[in-house]
Design a protein that fits this description.
Layout lengths: L2 E12 L6 H8 L25 E11 L2 E9 L4 E13 L1 H12 L2 H9 L1
Antiparallel strand pairs: 1-4, 2-3, 3-4
Length: 117
């Protein structure tokens, strides 16, 4: 049985005490904030970010091992930047996916790539 899907790595960086998201938004070309998370049906007003993060798509990144990566950065008002790196895979078995995920989790190189982004 072969699989296809996406593997994502989320790396968090503490970059400041606070980020002024309204000033950051035009700098990274982000759209105006909308209510998040988005729900299909009615939801209570308290189920959302008080200040939604600013998302910046960084597109293609340098490959990790032989896997091409794409990413985005989300900035949170409490001074955290979340770097998401992802890669698509297909025609691989479970053992290959497990091996890839383990290498990503234990990789100092992946953290270095995220810092560079």
């Amino acid at each position: 049985m072969t699989l296809r899907g996406t593997i994502r790595a989320l790396l968090l960086f503490d970059i400041s005490e606070e980020i002024d998201l309204e000033r950051l938004r035009p700098l990274v070309g982000a759209e105006n904030a909308k209510r998040e998370p988005a729900f299909r049906g009615p939801s209570p007003e308290y189920v959302r970010y008080e200040q939604p993060p600013v998302a910046d798509a960084i597109g293609a990144c340098a490959a990790f091992e032989t896997w091409p990566m794409h990413g985005r950065i989300r900035y949170f008002n409490y001074g955290i930047a979340s770097v998401e790196l992802r890669t698509e895979f297909s025609e691989v078995g479970w053992q290959d996916v497990i091996s890839l995920a383990n290498r990503w989790v234990l990789s100092d190189e992946l953290e270095k790539r995220a810092r560079e982004c």
